[in-house]
Amino acid sequence: MDKQHYNDGLLRFLQQSPTPFHAVSTMRAALESAGFELLNEQDVWQLKPGRAYVVTRNDSSIVAFTTADADPAETGINMAGAHTDSPCLKLKPNAVMNSPSALQFAVEIYGGALLAPWFDRDLSLAGRVEFRRQNGDVDSALLNWCRPIATVPSLAIHLDREANQNRSINAQKDMPPVFAMPLVPAADNTPAQFDFGAFIRETLEAQHGIVEVDKVLAHELYFYDTQAPAVIGLHNDFIASARLDNLLSCYVCLDAILAAHKSDNKQFSLMVCNDHEEVGSASACGAQGPFLRSVLARLCAQFSQGDAAESVERMTRRSLFLSIDNAHGLHPNFPEKHDANHGPLLNKGPVIKINANQRYATNSRSSARFKAICDQADVPVQEFVVRSDMGCGSTIGPITASGLGVETIDIGVPTYGMHSIRELAGSDDGWLLGRALRLYFGAGDGGGL
User: Within a domain: residue 35?
Assistant: First the structure.
């Protein structure tokens, strides 16, 4: 498992995944190419031992799993989860704002974004659109403009002398991106309007060859930074990219489940990557929704004997869930923001996240089980506890643990600048976590991405 090859794959995945929809599309394509069979939630499932399957919901959440010639109620399932969404600027339904000086896009803030780094970046747009064809059929497609089409310009220091000392950011007023100059009024001085529907139709034709669009019905479109992911640092110490939180974890899960499928050591292993973690997970495809439990119930129904509900409960008691989400690395400029004994360092291995108030789902038993895996994989482990006088974020871990009753641990790689438009991780840490996860899923050093 070569580190450079692993990180090259991570950079490609990050570049191909500007939105949760694109991340799931990229993962699904990789899984199907490797022999995972696509399931439809509306169909009757016919699962077989020694096979691999993938199912999606809302095009933004995904579950993939491998099966064994055994009863999961007797063996349990090794599970790992991450999330596909990241804080960003999301386009509002009525997307265009006209002003005398520029055309702007109306946006709302998705998740807990660090807003200051969004200024003066080259932004593009991507996501999903729904449209009606001329024959009356309603369809959808993924779009990605790829090139820079907008920016959020800063106010010059000359017009805001206090900008570096005392400036707040108003999400409604300060964040709408500029994308074009005002349109010239018609000859009768009627104000010219930017045709957003035509803008979408032209892109559908250019990217998908779809020409028979009668009407654009709805969209879920997100702005993203066009600067490519990169390995940086004097000795290639770091990975810099948008959406490291939490696409890095999705990549680690994807690589491990692919390696598990290619391995001769067949066991029940499962990865889930949920949407909407950054806004609370309360959706049909979020971790608080029924997606994972539904898949587990249907899997048990195929492989277990006896009462289906009891089989799910027995399987859950024998399982472990790794909730994988980035951790806060010890920031060199702000060491006082960390507990002195629990400040994880970049490039020193994955982090176990612990919180007395159950903001993380880790307990001593799940921690011990993960440490044993890391010891076997020769992977160093660190621990993170937030300062006792500070609040603590959370993950899909407590939500999944409380929803399923499965033993859970919260882990992740340490990063700087979490929720910024561009985050920073150590170039060793994803690879190290990947080694542990491959072992957990029963895979060897080969296979994967």
Answer: yes
CA atoms 62, 66, 71, 73: torsion sign: negative
Instruction: With H, G, I as helix, E, B as strand and everything else as coil, classify residue 297.
Output: helix
Same domain for 413 and 334: yes
Q: At residue 142, what are phi and psi to the nearest 5 degrees?
A: -90, 135
Any idea which residue has 């603590």 for tokens? 392
Query: Same domain for 354 and 261?
Result: yes
Q: Give the three-class secondary structure for 143.
A: strand
Which of 164, 196, 225 is at the close of a domain?
225
Q: E-strand spans in 148-241?
A: 178-180, 213-225, 230-232, 238-241
Rounded CA-CA distance 248/325 in Å is 9
Kindly report the pTM of this predicted structure.
0.96
Q: What is the mean pLDDT of the chain?
A: 95
Burial class (CB in 10 A: 0-12, 13-18, 19+), 1: middle
Cα-Cα-Cα-Cα dihedral sign, residues 98, 99, 100, 104 = negative
> Rounded to whole angstroms, how far apart are CA atoms 279 and 437?
27
pLDDT digits (tens, 9 = 90+) for 302-340: 998 878 889 999 999 999 999 999 999 999 999 999 999
Pair (82, 94) in one structural domain: no
Do both 78 and 103 map to the same domain? no
Residue 449 pLDDT grade (very low, low, confident, very high; cuts 50, 70, 90): confident
Write out the E strands in 275-381. 320-324, 327-328, 351-353
Chosen domain end from 225, 252, 287: 225
Q: What is the DSSP string of 151-169?
A: BBPPPPGGG-TTTTTS---
Q: Is cis: bond before 265, omega within 30 of 0?
A: no
**Do 322 and 221 share a structural domain?**
no
Residue 445 lies in a domain: no
pLDDT of residue 150: 98
Residues 297 and 429 in one domain: yes
Can you give the residue range of the structural domain that contains 278?
3-86+242-440
| Residue 234 counted as domain residue | no
pLDDT tens by residue, 61-104: 999 999 999 999 999 999 999 999 999 999 999 999 988 899 99
DSSP tag of 266 = -
417 inside domain: yes
Contact 433, 326 (CB under 8 A): no
The domain total for the chain is 2
Phi then psi for residue 205, to 5 deg, are: -70, -45
Strand locations in 102-176, DSSP E? 103-110, 123-133, 138-144
β-strands 78-83, 61-66 pairing: unpaired
